[in-house]
Hints:
The complex is a heterotrimer of chains A (265), B (350) and C (273).
Chain A: H1 2-23, H2 27-51, H3 62-96, H4 99-103, H5 109-114, H6 123-140, H7 146-172, H8 183-192, H9 203-212, H10 215-218, H11 220-226, H12 232-264
Helix pairs in contact in A: 2-3, 2-6, 3-6, 3-7, 7-11, 7-12
Chain B: E1 9-22, H1 27-35, E2 38-52, E3 57-61, H2 68-76, E4 83-88, H3 98-101, E5 104-108, H4 120-130, H5 135-149, H6 164-176, E6 182-186, H7 194-211, E7 214-218, H8 222-228, E8 231-236, E9 239-245, H9 246-253, E10 256-263, H10 271-278, E11 284-287, E12 291-297, H11 301-311, E13 314-320, H12 324-338
Parallel strand pairs in B: 3-7, 3-8, 5-6, 6-7
Antiparallel strand pairs in B: 1-2, 1-4, 8-9, 10-12, 10-13, 11-12
Helix pairs in contact in B: 4-6, 5-6
Chain C: H1 3-27, H2 29-56, E1 60-61, E2 64-65, H3 66-83, H4 87-96, H5 100-104, H6 110-139, H7 148-173, H8 183-196, H9 208-216, H10 219-222, H11 224-230, H12 236-271
Antiparallel strand pairs in C: 1-2
Amino acid sequence: MRAVLRDVGLLWLSFRLGALDALQYRADFFVQLVQSSVGLVTALAGVAVVFGQTDRLAGWSQDELFALIGVFTLVGGLIGMVIRPSMERLMEGVRLGTLDFALTKPADAQVLVSIQRVDVWRTVDVVLGAGLLLIAISRLGQHIGPAQAIAFGLVLVAGVVIIYSFLLILATLAFWLVRLENILVIFGSMYEAGRWPVGIYPPWLRATLTFIVPVAFAITIPVESLVGRLEPTTLVGTLLLAAGFLVGSRLIWKLGLRHYTGASA
Amino acid sequence: MTSHDEPVIAVRGLRKTYQVPEREGGLRAATGSLFRRRTREVIAVAGIDLTVASGEIVGFLGPNGAGKTTTLKVLSGLLHPTSGEVRVMGYVPWERPSAFLRRMTLIMGQRNQLSWDIPVIDSFELNRAIFQVPRDEYRTRLSELVELLDLGDLIRKPIRNLSLGERMKCEFAGSLLHRPEVLFLDEPTIGLDVTMQRRIRGFIERYNERTGATTLLTSHYMADVEALCRRVIVIHHGRLLYDGDLSGLVSRFSPYKTIVLDLEPAEDSIEGLVHELVGNERWIVSVGQERVTLRVPRSETTGVTTRLLTALSVIDLVVEEPAIDEVIDLVFATTAESGELAEASTDDPS
Amino acid sequence: MTRADRVGGLRDAYRAKFRTEIALQFAYRGALAIWLLGLLLGPIVYLVVWTTVARSQGGAVAGFSAGDFAAYFTVLMVVNQLTFTWHFYEFEWRVRNGFFSPLLLRPIHPVHNDIAENLSFKLLTFTGVAPVALLLLVAFDASLQPSAWHIIAFVPALMLAMALRFLVEWTIALAAFWLTRVSALNQAYTVALLFLSGQVAPLVLFPPAVQAAASILPFRWMVSFPVETLLGQLSGEAVLVGLGVQIAWIALALVMLRLVWRLGVRRYSAVGA
């Protein structure tokens, strides 16, 4: 428990450092605000164009899709804020040898590298996404009981954990394959496909987005839980999968680290 | 284009100023500066005149931010001056006519123009086509450059697999395939080890001998300048401080010479005697039982030397000009103190 | 130098640039494949969305059947890949890191460098796109049966679209000479392009006002028009008019490019290269 508290403390510290850094470039805030808003409006307009021709898309209503885009933006913001910049830095660190600095610090190296860079302005996405989600929920006019809220919270956290573990595994591959900078770009492209419910995709693409690049767990499944369409078994399965991913990524990280220190010694 | 007696490079009244945005701290100032900007004028080059004759190698000296790189960029056509007249081989550089570009080159240390991931020879081939070098000439020049720079098999490898010095050699070869008549070299040996610096230096010298190319060179390493340039131009705070030969620079800016005497070991302390003979405490650097070192004004050198030679049993005597680095330091230190040029800003705009 | 010499020199430079560029991009083929994946995924997603809509609406939306959508978005994917440029992402980096200066010191216009890069990129990536397109046509049961004249008209429409999109986007890229941060401008352009060039949905599915805007602005002529031509959605007359509009836009874009270029370089060489 003490270790967890310390890790949360580290995350907060890292966030503050990122904020101090970002505050030097305030113009970036406006750029990010404009870009995020435009991106959000673009996504909504895309949905609106589709729903100009139909009332339901594979069983989803327009407001449900707005909620989906809210979660898409929110989770995308979290990834863009901490996970992706830190993973990029990790891969760079392996290539240039600067990872040594993280390894010589008296804290868990995995935690350190996972929060080593924070792009504070991406909180704009988190806020916008959450705002859109709230609006969409109120428009759905559906009663959301504590059970659904808790289920949503659990599945959302599980989804983010799955994505984090997945990206950590990808970045850890850099220990063995040094020229791998673009692998995160693939994830970025695949993530874009997550702004639509994965149910509409043909089986091969659905399988890819669920199991190979697990975008579905972070976006589609949380929203399904919110609108009460999630099977209890899927909920449990998602939670178990998150735990499995977390443990698996930890193992692979340890393995990679051993390879790294072994290779450079 | 240019006849022989006409200078290859002619600069008159060259000035270059930049508008630099000013920023204040604080959130309000920062948000305010999003909408309106306050700017400040920075003078990079404050009016210089110079001419360079065909075939000369001229060293361009000055501390960081003196305006060397700005001047070089104006001469090579990358920058438009604020005012002044510039002709290089009769062309106005910043109009960048292709005939001009095909006759000159700009080489910057630590910056590579060759493609990182393909064999050097392929980048050369591209330069050949871009500069429209006829194939047979290209072949002879390439083999000549390969030999002069001792490139050997390097040109079959991609740049990323080469060391810093090897990259610089390839950079030179690639930039000289079109046999430019004017070379602008900005810190060409920066970051290289001493051996590689010497080889690059030797190459520049030989290239100049073979082709008679006019060369303007900036460098932080005095060794480069001493080895290559009979003539140096010193600028500081954007103004010309000195234009002439290297030895003149020393005698002009260093009023002292160093005298070192090796003595036969004496039994008594000679310190009092030396003080008496020299006549000025401040000229004495050190007095030992076997060696005396002095730093004496130029005009007094003969007198002091004669007095010491007659009074002491001297084994060896050396009268030295100070090292060029010291002189340069002295130049910049004195002008900074005197403050006569202080109104010009020294920010490095490049 | 005579004009013939200049043209010959340029041809030589292009040939050399192609050779080095293809070698270079082959060296980066991994990164290239990833780029391509991102480029292809967008049209595939919209293809899926719209075929789903068509099926849920009893087979067709505004005259588009599921097979029509499959054909539309597959052809769109190919056209998008062939007309796509990336220079406005690159210019900011070039200007900021001084990589623009060497290009300026070459005795040929830097635009030629980028044209050659662009064409060699397309040549290489097309070999990856073509099989993907065929696969999609089969997998989604696309109804694509162009007549001979549709194919014949498609070729000039596509080439003019490539030229137009390149000129427009290269001119926009020059904004990097004035702005330190061009990403907001690039994004605004990209969004406009997304909707007005028919990448989100065929333009006929949009309200009339949007359709009019797409036709008045250059967007439709950069991507959608060749697709519409190959799919046989346009009359012979409309195709001819479209080609004329493309040529007119290209002429205008050339004038703009020259003007903005001259102003941009003047600014670049005034504020410090």
